[in-house]
Design brief:
The chain is built from 14 helices and 13 strands. Strand 6 and strand 7 form a beta hairpin. Helices cover 42% and strands 12% of the residues. The longest helix is centred in the C-terminal third of the chain and has 37 residues. 42% of the residues are buried.
């Protein structure tokens, strides 16, 4: 889904792979500068031998300035010495990365294009887990998060899942689970045929764990996708300018610091510009205030609309959605993504959504024919120009406003239910997931309210204009 973007020469920007992409790590940890003794105390003693092992695999020195430690949100990388902005702090050669190419040939051939790269890499992880200490990658595989540490909505139970029923993440999680189950059936068949003794009974739960684990940790590059040991211990900071780059000439991935770090500071990178909806589903954490929050909404043509078939036909004929309109989950002509509107007079809601509302507001075949002719005379896109009749333009935008107001009501109900719950007897897992639900819903509510304010301002100006 997230394609690598070329930067300079053969260096390519990598983003964390998303599903269509759980880390127990929560939002970015703002570490304070520590004393040398505190920095030593923060080291993860279970991982002292990890970097030397990986450097032996790579046949090269990977870093002079990073060490593995523990943050409040799991394993992390910390500065072991002073780091200056612009320093290259990490280089991981391709031969120290894990790709689907390592699958046994028979399995790889069996898993045709019906199984995506995430599914193929998940299948490999299952094989390596099953191999235990005989796995080449055991020191890495054994240090991956356990199922109990993962908080992607894929693993939420029914009661937890109901907390986010007002969000599009609810339906997307259902669809994601269905996709995983479909790929599992193909992986299971391949295992039974080619690895009957190695993995006798691959379980759906194990594949779902491996699939989600890979989806949250793999990076998509020009080479496909890969797990990058050590680099994937770094936590996410949505404001960081540090990213993973691929240097094709030197066959490695590298990270450059975007700021100064003192010894003991946690070193952070940006996985991508992801909303809490994506972070929750793909990575299993959310941010208290996410500047990239957005809301996916769906608007349908009513089944009892006498012009329904004609409207659907026009949409299919003139469907030319731009890349900017494609949302994080999937793209269709009746699904739209709204981002926070910063100003009532600034850039408002998507043009594609406004065009769809103009189509919905039409009440006669003549009006629809007029829209079609207008599109043909311009760039082919349907209803992108405002109605000349202000009352019709007003009616179209009132349709959007009514829909958004309905979503605001739904989100407020969910927030009220979250606040009314008894916190005294709930598990730590539920406490974490309740907080994630709260941050998701509050962020989406902020976006919805900003869109409603913009629409009210727009409608008011239409009504009052001479």
């Amino acid at each position: 889904m997230l394609l690598s973007c070329p930067t300079v020469k053969l260096i390519v920007f990598q983003q964390r792979r998303t599903f269509t992409s759980s880390l127990a790590k929560r939002f970015s940890f703002n570490a304070q500068s520590l004393t040398e003794s505190q920095a030593q105390a923060a080291l993860d003693k279970d991982c002292i031998d990890f970097l030397p092992w990986l450097e032996q695999i790579a046949g090269a020195k990977l870093t002079n300035s990073l060490s593995i430690g523990k943050s409040p949100y799991g394993r992390a990388l910390f500065a072991s010495k002073v780091i200056h902005a612009g320093d290259c702090i990490l280089k991981i050669p391709f031969n120290a990365q894990i790709t689907p190419d390592e699958l046994p040939t028979d399995i790889r051939v069996s898993l045709t294009d019906k199984v995506g790269n995430i599914g193929k890499l998940a299948a490999l992880v299952m094989i390596e887990i099953n191999a235990g200490q005989n796995s080449r990658w055991f020191p890495y595989i054994s240090r991956l998060p356990q199922l109990s540490d993962m908080h992607s909505t894929i693993f939420w139970d029914e009661n937890e899942f109901s907390m986010i029923r007002c969000s599009a993440v609810y339906k997307e999680t259902v669809k994601q689970k269905a996709r995983i189950e479909k790929e599992f059936s193909l992986v299971s068949q391949a295992f039974k045929k080619h690895l009957p003794k190695a993995i006798e009974r691959p379980a759906l739960e194990n594949f779902m764990y491996a699939y989600t684990l890979v989806g949250s940790r793999a990076w998509e590059t020009s080479r496909g996708i890969s797990l990058i040991p050590f680099a994937d211990f770094m936590n996410h900071d949505g404001l960081s300018a540090s990213i993973v780059l691929t240097d094709e000439d030197n066959q490695l991935s590298e990270v450059t610091a975007d700021r100064d770090y003192s010894p003991g500071d946690e070193v952070l990178i940006r996985y991508g510009e992801f909303s809490n909806a994506t972070l929750m589903l793909d990575f299993g954490f959310t941010l208290p205030y996410n500047t990239h929050d957005e809301v996916q909404i769906q608007m349908d043509i009513a089944n009892d609309d006498p012009l329904r078939n004609m409207k659907l036909g026009l949409l299919q004929t003139h469907y030319t959605r731009s890349v900017k309109d494609i949302n994080i989950f999937h793209s269709s002509y009746d699904t739209f993504t709204i981002k926070e509107v910063k100003s009532a007079t600034g850039k408002g809601i998507p043009q594609s959504l406004r065009a769809f509302a103009r189509l919905l507001s039409c009440t006669s075949p003549q009006e629809l024919n007029d829209l079609s002719k207008e599109a043909e005379l311009n760039d082919g896109r349907l209803a992108r120009l405002p109605f000349k009749d202000r009352s019709r333009e007003l009616e179209a935008h009132k349709i959007i406003l009514a829909h958004i107001n309905s979503l605001i009501v739904d989100h407020n109900v969910c927030i009220k239910e979250l606040g009314a719950s008894n916190f005294r007897f709930e598990s730590q897992r539920l406490t974490v997931r309740r907080q994630m639900a709260r941050e998701l819903i509050f962020g989406e509510l902020r976006v919805l309210r900003s869109a409603a304010e913009w629409l009210i301002h727009y409608c008011t100006n239409l009504f009052s204009a001479p």
